[in-house]
Amino acid sequence: MTPLIDVMLVLLVIFMITAPLMTASLRLDLPKSDAATPSDAPTSIAVAITPDGKLHLGNEELDPKAFQQRIAELGRANAQMEVQLRADRAVPYGQVAELIGWVQAGGLNRIAFVAQAAASAP
What we know:
This protein is α/β, with parallel strands linked by helices. It has one domain: Nucleotidyltransferase, domain 5. It is built from three helices and seven strands. Strand 2 and strand 3 (55-57) form a beta hairpin. The longest helix is centred in the first third of the chain and has 22 residues, at 2-23. The N and C termini lie far apart (54 Å).
């Protein structure tokens, strides 16, 4: 009886340790971060997506086809350019993932997620 109880306790400890790791695999809340610092990248381009799905490259609003063409041009010109991605909190993850795919297809693989610094508690 005692060995069975020992095995049960070991299994209980294992499940207590692994259960939180399995549930928190991809719960992201990117808009606020204590570690949000500006990048030191010498060349970067700002990419933004609004809640209604409009794409912005720098300060210019583009439709998806024009956006993909401009990203491809930037990728051919400088493949080491960093893309600073700003996505509104209300934008669905699928749209952000699609945008990242377009950026990578254009030849730009350095992508930084821009977040606001979290308000520090008094």
